[in-house]
Amino acid sequence: MSTPLLSARGLGKKFGAVVAADDLCIDIAAGQRLSIIGSNGAGKTTFVNMVTGYLKPDEGCIELDGQDITQLSHQRIAGMGICRSFQIPQLCLELTVLENLLVAVGAADGRLSLWRPAGNKLWRERAQVLLEKFALQADANRQVLELAGGVRKLLDIAMALARAPRLLLLDEPTSGVSADEKFPAMERVMEALQGEAATILFVEHDMDIVARFSERVIAFYSGRVIADGPPAEVMANLEVRRYITGEK
């Protein structure tokens, strides 16, 4: 049996009396496109934060290709190929779209100079590829503070992709995007990720988005996994219907 790309074993995390992770055991194979669902406080973001190194578990271990990464910094983990976008995009608002991408590409290269972020031809070429992938060419020279929420979200994901990650975690990729824009925005993201080697895991509240764009769904409730499988199977699960989707 092949080694999972990511393996989490016995993860536990408490915040005072609140249990955010309760003996979580999750394996993710390379090349999967999966989502995590659950109500607020179910432990979804806690899991993502532990996997990416922004939060350390109280118990358990996390392995990337069989290597223990549990106690590594988020910078080290990103350098090993686990990257994320954020529910609220982490962007430099005063910089342009292109400048933000150049900073991300330079950081991925490990030789970023904040004084000369645009001075490397290879960085510019990679930034241009990302602009095209996410259809951001028309916004390249606009300051981020001028952009709508959906465009900022696309830029945040493009910046995460600048590191050529092996595992890309998207935290609520359609949050802040209008109902009319959510499907086109997600289609654009998935089209941009085609041809990339990244395994994709996204946290999402919108069940229509989950059903359309996931091949596997993991359902969280009270820090535990209550269902794991194909979208239709998970959506039909009685605990999922009771605790997450609110169906009878």
UniProtKB/TrEMBL annotation:
GO molecular function terms noted in the UniProt entry: ATP binding; ATP hydrolysis activity
Domain of life: Bacteria
Transmembrane region(s): none
Keywords: ATP-binding, Cell membrane, Hydrolase, Membrane, Nucleotide-binding, Transport
Any one annotated GO CC term: plasma membrane
Assigned EC number: 3.6.3.-
Class in the EC hierarchy, top level: hydrolase
Domain ABC transporter: 6-247
Protein name: Lipopolysaccharide export system ATP-binding protein LptB
Source organism: Polaromonas vacuolata
Name of the gene this protein is made from: lptB_4
